[in-house]
Amino acid sequence: KRVSFVNQANLSSGLIIFVSSLSFLHQYSLEDEPSNLDEMPLMMSEEGFENDESDYHTLPRARVKQRQRGLGWLLMGGWKILCGSCCDCLARTCRRTKELKARTVWLGHPEKCEEKYPKNAIKNQKYNFFTFVPGVLYQQFKFFLNLYFLVVACSQFVPALKIGYLYTYWAPLGFVMAVTMVREAVDEVRRYQRDKEMNSQLYSKLTVRGKVQVKSSDIQVGDLIIVEKVGIKSIPTVKHFVFLGSCFIRTDQLDGETDWKLKVAVVCTQRLPALGDLFSINAYVYAQKPQLDIHSFEGNFTREDGDPQIHESLSIDHTLWASTIVASGTVIGVVIYTGKETRSVLNTSSPKNKVGLLDLELNRLTKALFLAQVVLSIVMVALQGFVGPWFRNLFRFIVLFSYIIPISLRVNLDMGKSAYGWMIMKDENIPGTVVRTSTIPEELGRLVYLLTDKTAVIKAKGGTLTQNEMIFKRLHLGTVSYGTDTMDEIQSHVVQSYAQVIILLPVRAPKAAAPPKVRKSVSSRIHEAVKAIALCHNVTPVYETHASVNGETESTAAEADQDFSDDNRTYQASSPDEVALVRWTESVGLTLVNRDLTSLQLKTPAGQILTYYILQIFPFTSESKRMGIIIREETTGDITFYMKGADVAMASIVQYNDWLEEECGNMAREGLRTLVVAKKSLSEEQYTDFENRYNQAKLSIHDRALKVSAVVESLEREMELLCLTGVEDQLQADVRPTLELLRNAGIKIWMLTGDKLETATCIAKSSHLVSRSQDIHVFRSVSNRGEAHLELNAFRRKHDCALVISGDSLEVCLRYYEHEFVELACQCPAVVCCRCSPTQKAQIVHLLKQHTANRTCAIGDGGNDVSMIQAADCGIGIEGKEGKQASLAADFSITQFKHIGRLLMVHGRNSYKRSAALGQFVMHRGMIISTMQAVFSSIFYFASVPLYQGFLMVGYSTIYTMFPVFSLVLDQDVKPEMALLYPELYKDLTKGRSLSFKTFLIWVLISIYQGGILMYGALVLFESEFVHVVAISFTALILTELLMVALNIRTWHWLMVLAEFLSLGCYIASLAFLNEYFGIGRVSFGAFLDLGFITTPAFLWKVSVITVVSCLPLYIIKYLKRKFSPPSYSKLSS
């Protein structure tokens, strides 16, 4: 089902422009690939490891089995694939697909748009008024079971084929269809109401007359929309009330990254004195056509009324996509894409109706039953000698044996699924859980692969879509280490250090060349470390103000920012661990109070404001793995180069030491994110020389990036190592025990995230997704077939290690070695895929389903997880405060990650076990009466005459046996506490042993035995009148079914006992009523009800003997089996 994109409909304001995701559909250039690799599959056998690793031309070839497509393939399911392909082709031919093109959007003038763009509305309904009935009927009758009953029911309109009353065939079928249509109609109405609610959300639109409120569905390309802190839009930013035209946004609902990202506005619109002037200028935005890629955008902003014209290039830094959040301030943006052309919608796959594995297995069994029914009918006609109109007799026998496939199977299963959903939502141990798809609860008990988004695991409060909660845990200075319990010592050292500085400053000249050297005591080292952490970052303090959007200039907001009170200050940054570091420095006394593009200010414990000028800043990149900043202190004029980064990058930069590598390893084993902090003092001459070389490198036309990097690296030599920091992600409650529970249950967990490789690795360690004893193999970046081949062979040598791979490398591997990569990855205990686009997440799910044929489950909490959730066999969404995209798109919605354990171990187990028992028992109920019919016909000259007629057949599958049989949905083999204590029991469920051809054949044998005993026993024991045969056999049949239900129950419930006695009471009470309702003299339900006969001792002992003979052996076999070969769960129960 489709998710309601809470804010997808809202394309907003500003001259910032948005675009979207990683495209899997682009053409790959193979020019850089060696031609001789085209015919060389990846080596998959051990013999190739003897060869030189670099000589991949000599590696042996893997023989991948090719699918044979012949007559057997066609008959065994190939026809479905062919029909589906033909239907898809016809649909594509009939549906006109609009070609996406680049566009020119005029500011505030939607009427100038040359083309008609899609409406900005959400529509998640599967049907409309005209397609509802045909669509629902198609979804039902595409299953063999329902189609079979439709054909049988229609055959009763032919007089020559009529067996009984029409209502005995059409009433059950009509009831099933009515229940299904009502359920689908309710779901459709709910989807419509959710869509209407989303499309009716009000947003502020800027017009010539001022600000007006418009519905999200009425927003058009070219509108100027005001995006405030609570809003989510998809536009470029023209003007907003954040200093110097920049703001922070959050994209966790789009790409899963919880870091805040800095966005900048178009420069020329920042100079306008009032908002109304946006309509007085003649400007437009030229934007590229809608794409999947959410990480790039190309466009231009042009103002034509200037002299000369103003041209400004636009990039991803100028855009806000749908499903992103403005973290602070107010933005004005021009709408570029709407509706189906937004990145979030383009990255969402079309929803498909999910069918459970148990339903597919039962569908196969019904086909086997139909085949047996046809064979039995042919045998009956053959024994007749094919005399007379034998073809008509054949069809009559097929209709006569139609109860071998009971229509009540679908009714019972659907009602059972509804009961399971109700039990899940009423479970007090998992409050807030919602079952949105009631057709697949059994899938929760068959899962092998669990694919989760990182943010679904690390939220501080289960499912709330806020920024990561990071906690500063450790500061290591080389000789001394401080933890959370010794932070007060650091605070006292900082207070002492700045108290000394205040005393020294008046004595010192304002422009002293250098401070007097002091001995490197612990106090001074702590002071230097805390000062470096407080200065080396990209964090900006934000003070919430209530500035309006009615044309005020930005000076008002700027003045408000000078109120440095602690109460209304929040921090914004592109990385949550940087915020954690700055918050920690605040807690120990050194507070960041203000920052702009050229300076930052710190407040000491004594309240003094220290100003530092930012000379240069080198942002963090995934390639450099470090960030640096050059600052000049206002009071002394000292220039200092601070740098922090990952230990692998900083180890070669800092001066020699003997503790860094060891301590980094210790912190990593604790699941902490480590950062190495270093500094280097620069003289005025050194900095001037560096600045000249740096500016010259930035102006280079060729190899600019390499030249700039080389100049910066010239400073990164022999830096003084100050400290090592350790920061921990705040996980949800009980995440670690939940993941361990799932691992013990045999479920393989894959984490798919859009975050950086280092972050994903740290989360995998801290959450114990990867145990401490396991190695982690980081799949290095590959760009062509040769590199992928070598890296896969290197990974092939590793055993029992977790895999960490980036989205780009994954794309290359899947392009050339899809089968081999999936085979290797599935052997890993855990897999982490970082920098994954939403499309890639869905593709990974499809690959696992295709290559392993196991059931998959996807868990997410953001709009970027919707495609993955819809692609998986079972989708679980974690509901949060900021958005419900994943929750609404999922089959099951939970509030905390830890609830997954009980949802799978308890409810998944019970749903699967109960449905398997219920389905097989309903089939047994049909097979036993069909066996009796076959015995009856064979004895009476193979006549195609029904044994039981009229209300008898309807009553047999309804009021006489329905309640006890359906009470099996209350049965449980293991108590919930045991299922959670011993998750290893879950492994047996994935093997599908509760419902298989083996168990099915056992039930077939039981049905044949009991049906034969009941019928032959009645024939042997009846005396003078034939109607006594029907009386004895039917009564024994009802008693046998009630006893068989009791035989299969493992844990009794008071409702089960009530159902047994209620059904027995209904049968006894109906004898007198049916004796009057039906006349005497026909072989019908009323004919055998001779009250004089059924009250005699002869009737009672004959029924008792037949019932005991049919059931007692099965009770004995069950006792012996439980005594000598008990199932695993019975040992725990005892």
From TrEMBL:
EC number, as in UniProt: 7.6.2.1
Every P-type ATPase C-terminal domain range: 888-1126
Ribonucleoprotein among keywords: no
InterPro entries: ATPase_P-typ_cyto_dom_N (IPR023299), ATPase_P-typ_TM_dom_sf (IPR023298), ATPase_P-typ_transduc_dom_A_sf (IPR008250), HAD-like_sf (IPR036412), HAD_sf (IPR023214), P-type_ATPase_IV (IPR006539), P-type_ATPase_N (IPR032631), P_typ_ATPase (IPR001757)
Annotated signal peptide: none
Topology relative to the membrane: Multi-pass membrane protein
Binding site for Mg(2+): 453, 455, 861, 865
Catalyzed reactions: ATP + H2O + phospholipidSide 1 = ADP + phosphate + phospholipidSide 2
Compartments (UniProt record): Golgi apparatus, trans-Golgi network membrane; Membrane
Binding site for ATP: 453-455, 578, 620, 644, 673, 753-755, 835, 841, 864-865
A GO term for molecular function: magnesium ion binding
All copies of domain P-type ATPase N-terminal, residue ranges: 111-170
Active site, renumbered: 453
Protein name: Phospholipid-transporting ATPase
Organism: Hucho hucho
